Amino acid sequence: MIRRVSAPEFVQMFPHPAHIYNSVAFAEHNRAKCDGEDLRYLFIGDSKVRFGVILGRRDDALCSPFSAPFGGLVSNRIQQFDLVDNAWRQLLQYAEAEGYRLHVTLPPTIYDSATTARSVYSLTKLGLTPSVDVSYHIDLDANDIVTMMSASSRGHLKRANAGGLVFEKLRPVHADIARVYRIIEANHQSRNHRMAMSLADVESTVALVSADIFVVSRDGNDIAGAIMYPSSDGVIQLINWGDMPGFSHLRPMNFFAAKLFEHYKAEDKKILDLGPASSSQGVTDFGLAAFKESLGAVPTLKFTFRQP
Known about the structure:
The chain is an alpha+beta fold. It has two domains: about 1-125, Gcn5-related N-acetyltransferase (GNAT) (Aminopeptidase, 3-Layer(aba) Sandwich); about 135-300, Aminopeptidase. The chain has nine helices and twelve strands. A twelve-stranded mixed β-sheet has the order 1-2-3-4-5-12-6-11-10-9-8-7, sandwiched between helices. Helix 3 (about 80-100) crosses helix 4 and helix 6 (about 175-190) crosses helix 7. The radius of gyration is 20 Å and the shape is elongated.
């Protein structure tokens, strides 16, 4: 059975989603990004609460997510394989009955791995067309990041440590958010990449999710910045980072990675999610993949499924 419910009902049914992108608060914050603000909270179950899903209409599809890195099913506990399979079958039928295609991007397996793995199988079996991205994460239970780095990355970090770089956590206020945004924007412009979010979007989302913002400077000059979301219990996700053009020889990004590892390990986080290694067009950037692997990051797969 599928039933459309209100936002408050959805919160009551699923008070603790596996990641922030499946939260009502995040969905409502981005409601305007749905076509016609067509945002749907669906309950999927029988006599028990089994699953929920948040769908937003974009073009000719009902999408999970409609404006986030990933979405997928919401549940309060690990559900049996056949129940996951049946939930996706019902959702596909629901989308078709409404006159739309179904479009789903699942989280990497560091988030709710059992549901994600079962969803990959079920959506493939249902005939949706898969595409795959490679996502990277660092295990913060390791003693330190240096032992996980490649020899070249350790050398770059040694140079950065000798270069007078300063790592600082900033306040989530307009001036500091704009300070970091300008660094990342300059980095993107130098690579002919577009910014996915405006400064206003970043500022409002930082407040919504209690994001962290950081800067690396040298001699009082900002040379790199980063924005991090607490995406799940024990997981901190890199949303965006970059260095100012002309400063890469100081290796600020190797320095940044090491300092972020130290900072979040001290906060008892478990996973540092560095996100995908892809260009703005969704094509794997092998140079970016090599850099993340040189830091000791581990690859996992992130699947997107589209109904033909």
